[in-house]
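protein under study:
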Amino acid sequence: MPHRYIKKILSANVYDVAVETPVSPARSLSKRMDNNILFKREDLQPIYSFKIRGAYNCISQLSQAQQASGLVAASAGNHAQGVAMSAKYLGINATIVMPKTTPDIKVSSVRALGAEVILHGDSFAQAYAYSLTLVADQGLVYIHPFDDEHVIAGQGTVAVELLRQVQGHVDAIFVPVGGGGLIAGMSVYIKYLRPDIKIIGVEPEDACCLKVALDAGERLILPEVGTFAEGVAVAQVGKLNFELAQQYVDEVITVTTDELCAAIKDIYDDTRAVTEPSGACAVAGLKKYVEREQAKNQTLIAVSTGANLNFDRLRHVAERAEIGEGREAVIAAQIPERAGSFKGFCKALGDRNITEFNYRYSNESQAQVFVGVTLKSGEGGREPLLEELSSANISAVDLSDNEMAKTHIRYMVGGHAAVEHEVVYRFTFPERPGALLKFLDTLGQPWNISMFHYRNHGSAYGRVLVGMQVPPEDKAKFEGYLDELGYAFNEETHNPAYQLFLAP
């Protein structure tokens, strides 16, 4: 099997449209982590993503009859642009089916490349199913984003360039994983020539389809997929990709949303490029590997895979980067409701800076405050801060890993309300014009809405925190109704952030 792929990779046709991307030294990150860290800059491709390689190689291999039939692909992002640009160069008609939730910037980019865009469904799965009806009804040729030998071979050209550009000793290469096309192509080529180099896949914790598959020994389908890193938000790794990963991938590391945001900042600091979350995945995994292994003086390479980031997501990235880097803690603290308490609290923090302080009067004796605190350089985590507050007789709860607190509560601190039978749920729903109104119409049943907070970060999904007045005897009926709604949800009634700041 490897020889077949090596031949396909070496004969892959990508440079009609793709470019050979540079390897950039990450000087600041290297110094900070005591390793030689390099970035393979696939964010510098004409479509700002490596996806152009696999798409063009696949399309250019089609027969004249297949090309004359026209192409179809389902994608909400980079693969769509890769297919559209490749088809335009080759003079082939292309249709891209995109979910209705796809941000306008991506739809406009695909249309500007000459492809016909059909908006269908709220998810990739629905867009994909519709694209297959076009294959059956119109005879179009489907271009798969990752589970195809020619696509895998096209992505493998990243490895060909990399081993030519970095000829000295390399300890490990970190590769983002969605459906697995890039890591399949890169790993089979690198392990064939340089089996001493570790190949490490990196996935978001809430979209880790390859890790789950490798652990189980079979391709499983994730019941839910996180959408922050849209470029790697895939529920099931490809069949061909999984077979290659089982043989040639050393391990898979998972990373959090906050760690992705910190990695985006790291890449910006060293290159002045703003990558998308999936594009920073490898850097986040590299940093986690260095910390876990206490690695020193190694040569480590991260593939920066894409820079198609919606501008309105930058606020969210900036908010979370410091927490992801371990330079900021978010805590809830209880201080006496009397003059001088805030000054005493600041004194207990020592020389740490307060980045955020949310407070409202609650009762005559105690006040709950929501605080962001910059940690000292070399402090080694949040424990010293919590211990110092405890020594000053200040009760504090660490909310740095509490998603609801960081997404919703920090914007809602306003005191407790006398609401009877309140239950709290966190929802995500497909984002498109009118989506919030539709959500409210759907939710508007016999139970009263007692609290509502909505946030969207320019992504395909909106986030809502909802309080509902539901008597205990109605709880089972209410949750059955939520199941019928079809929106992903989690109950947060017992979340400490809610209990501390908003609960009756």
